[in-house]
Design goal:
binds adenosine-5'-triphosphate, about 40% helix, 5-stranded mixed beta sheet, binds calcium ion, 8-stranded antiparallel beta sheet, alpha+beta, Phosphatidylinositol Phosphate Kinase Iibeta, Chain: A, domain 2, Phosphatidylinositol Phosphate Kinase II Beta
């Protein structure tokens, strides 16, 4: 997995699709946001609205570059969810503006889903299968209630559910969700953990060509890694994970994982690698945009545009400077601005993540960026078949498609088992040696 992926510009095969997604999001989100806020009712959870976009524009919709149809699901529920997750409405729209095209991660998983980052890297658009779409719609009320009761949930934060269809094309469902990884910190290692062992090894020799690949359970175990959390952080983390998993078990969902990105504070940010990925991508987009716009003299940028440009400049400048070790705790003003959005989220408090801690609860040397992802797979027919098939070859405890109840229990057991402070891990290892 590369850090950022390929830029979706006009020559990209999925440019039209991406453009239509963003145009539809912008239109429907502004439309809902423009109304006065109100309480949700039952009907909001099953609501769907269809819009037709075309080059001439219609009564309801503005003209667009292409003809397409757009469906918006449960807009009021998602508006409220975005508020619970403390997103700033203007900021959300700005990040997903169609003028600035996203980058595509391609299809990192086996599922064939595509991933797109908003250009500021804060949001991810994931295309999903119709079955996953149905799961999210069906679970929306439970998810909403859960999130309200658990603002610190580790589950993926869903901000929108939509569908786009181009003439003679197929229907593409997608969700907008949080990018767990921060734009301003390098992730030195990434793990996708499920608590199963079959097929859960990334060939380490491939790390040479792809140093940022996502590693799995067996890689984690073979490195004798731990989620190094002291008593109090460990307690809150496990407690929240258990609550989240309980919901998934109730909804008969499985196959999810704990995604863990590790930022090593002693390594800091590798500026060269960033140059090749995020920064170059952002600047590249900027330059092209500017070329297409009239010369500066004939056009005065709006105040909002100007302040955004200023913010981007600051961001770029910040990325160019290596962050000295001693300063990792102090933040630049606009960095704080970015974090205000998520400020109450316990697990995203330390620079957008969750810093390791020692047995005495003193801060550790790495920051974890973590959450439970890929949680829209229902234990359906496919998994049952897979279960029978894999069940012939392996003991059940090792295989991934087991029923949701046991999947969740195994997940919690595994993650709890690897969560311990460095001191505790060492103590346990010594004890094991001594028998
Ligand atoms: P599969 O079903 O084969 O596991 P998928 O297409 O459903 O694949 P996911 O498991 O959701 O894909 O994600 C694949 C990878 O994309 C993850 O391992 C992770 O590296 C990255 N990813 C997914 N969601 C996020 C997120 N919210 N933040 C950051 N990275 C993510
Ligand atoms: Ca997955
Ligand atoms: Ca999946």
């Amino acid at each position: 997995r590369v850090l950022v992926g390929t830029k979706v510009d006009q020559n990209h095969a999925n440019y039209v699709m991406a453009y239509n997604m963003l145009t539809g999001i912008r239109f429907t989100v502004s439309r809902t946001n423009a109304k006065m806020d109100r309480e949700l009712n039952e009907a909001d959870f099953s609501a769907k609205h269809k819009f037709s976009f075309d080059v001439t524009g219609a009564e309801l919709t503005p003209s667009a570059k292409y003809d397409f149809k757009f469906k918006d699901y449960a807009p009021w529920v998602f508006r409220h969810l975005r508020a619970i997750f403390k997103l700033d409405p203007a900021d959300y729209l700005m990040s997903l503006t169609s003028k600035y095209i996203l980058s595509e991660l391609g299809s990192p998983g086996k599922s064939g889903s595509f991933f797109y980052f908003s250009r500021d890297y804060k949001y991810i658009i994931k295309t999903i299968h119709h079955a996953e779409h149905k799961v999210l719609r069906k679970m929306l009320k439970d998810y909403y209630d859960h999130v309200r009761e658990n603002p610190n949930t580790l589950l993926s934060q869903f901000y929108g559910l939509h569908r786009v269809k181009i003439p003679f094309g197929r229907k593409v469902h997608f969700v907008v969700m949080n990018n767990l990884f921060p734009p301003h910190r390098d992730i030195h290692k990434t793990f996708d953990l499920k608590g199963s062992t079959v097929g859960r090894m990334f060939e380490e020799k491939n790390l040479e060509t792809n140093p940022r690949a996502t590693l799995k359970d067996l890689n984690w175990l073979s490195r004798n890694n731990h989620l190094e959390l002291g008593p109090s952080k460990r307690h809150y983390f496990i407690e929240q994970m258990e609550k989240d998993v309980k919901l998934l078990q109730k909804l008969k969902i499985m196959d999810y994982s704990l995604l863990v990105g590790i930022h090593d504070l002693s390594k800091g940010n590798d500026e060269q690698l960033r140059d090749k990925t995020l920064k170059v991508f952002q600047l590249g987009t900027d330059k092209e945009e500017e070329l297409q716009q009239p010369p500066a003299l004939t056009r005065t940028p709006s105040k909002m545009e100007a302040s955004r440009k200023a913010k981007e400049m600051r961001q770029t400048l910040r990325q160019e400077k290596p962050v000295p070790m001693s300063q990792t705790g102090s933040k630049m003003p606009d960095e704080m601005e970015d974090e205000k959005m998520r400020k109450d989220h316990y697990f995203y408090l330390d620079d957008g993540g969750f810093r390791a801690s020692h047995e005495n609860d003193q801060p550790g040397d790495v920051i974890y960026y973590l959450g439970i992802i890929d949680c829209l797979t229902h234990y359906g027919v496919v998994k049952k078949l897979e279960h029978v098939w894999k069940g012939w070859q392996h003991a059940e405890s090792q295989i991934s498609p087991i029923p949701p109840e046991r999947y969740g229990d195994r997940f919690v057991r595994f993650i709890s088992g690897i969560t311990k402070s460095a001191e505790e891990a060492e103590h346990d290892a010594v004890e094991k040696l001594q028998g």
